[in-house]
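Support request, please re-run this one:
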Amino acid sequence: MDAGILIFLSSGIFLGWSLGANDAANVFGTAVATRMVRFTTAALVCGVFVALGAVFSGAGATHTLGALGSVNALPGAFMAALSAALTVYAMTHAGLPVSTSQAIVGAIVGWNLFSGFPTDLEALGKIAATWVACPLLAGFLGALVYRITAAVMRRTRIHLLRLDAYTRSGLILAGAFGSYSLGANNIGNVMGVFVEANPFSTFSVEGLFNFTGVQQLFLLGAVAIGVGVFTYSRRVMTTIGAGLMPLSPIGAWIVVIAHSLVLFLFASEGLEHLLASHGLPTIPLVPVSSSQAVVGAVVGIGLMKGGSDLQWRSLLGVASGWITTPVIACLVCFVCLFFLQNVFQQQVYRDSAYEISPAVLERLERQGVATTDLTALQGRRVAGVRAFRKLLAQTTELGPQNEREVISAARIASIELEPSRIEALDTAWLSPNQLDALRALSGRRFAHRWALAEALAAKSKAWRTRPDTIANKLYNRSIRRKLDYLYQHLGPATAPGSSR
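Re-run finished. Output below.
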């Protein structure tokens, strides 16, 4: 790997280390604090299963985070991850179980503000809603599992020594499940900002396996998380394990189970597929806060016991960290991007030209966007998203969602389907029909991303999305991911560290 690329990825590694140092407490903190599981055992199990969850199930929640803002230059992704990592490290050093999810969301919003790209308010609202739903759901599950466990304990009357052995095994198994869920759900927080500017390419062995560039990126982040678990997680484990409420070993197991279930629900593409295939509403795949989940579970158990054992002062301290984290990360990212761009002369975002052409107007009309005011801008080409947004604000009255649609449609992408670049694509991931459609367009150039998508859909139904229903949700997402892959690999190349 190029040394320059590794330098830019170092902030993601640092953020992974910070997450491991902080969020491992949410998986094994209660078990270690109750002395049912040794720290070394907890760290080993956590590190292994976090890596497995990140590599095999990490893509689902990352997609929603990418919709919030596509950090499209490696130096910009470096600074977004570094800003989040610094915020998490500072909170961790203070012994607070801060939310890594909130830190990276704040950093991405900071990048959006600096670059001028609009923040997807729908994606932000979906993520912010989970900041409320996550602790509430964890509290409900914690209370439910507590009631069920208490009823089972009263009926079975297990011998104390046998109960102790069962509890130790249960804590380790629950911790392994929780670690897998943590890796699957939270690896998007660590490496999600690098997906758009991912420097890795697919590594494959013919007939054996394919190790995609995104999986390599996630594995690197997972290793960093594991190192964070071993080196710096003891302090936060103490805060989570004993600072909010004294817990029995069985109570610790209940907390881990409730926390793990919440993370799994918000990360499982398999569960989403099962629900969608039966026409049922799906749970959004969003990187949620493991800190919020475990605190919600502890509070749920505490309330079931009457609430007298809860340390409300510690709880308020934790909650205050959740409120300030995204704001601090946003401000840190904005200020640091300014220095990275103007002092170190790094390209922190890739901008484009924008043009309202007849084809763009036709595209917007098909999407239901009113184009009456936009016709006055027909033929105008503007360099840079800030200037284009300013022009739109002066001549039109678009809402946030329509503004994003206009910006996306008018962006000049300059995609050229060179035969050599088509053959270099991941042929194991793209279907034969999809590859045939690409090869049929070989040599053509497209001014916009959507123009390529429409041309491919016209060539083969393998590139066509289906009606936007729950049952078609996963299929359409798969098509969009493959199109994003084409845009990344067939669009104009930009050196990671080039100056603006």
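The first helix runs from residue 3 to 33. The chain is about 70% helix and 5% strand.
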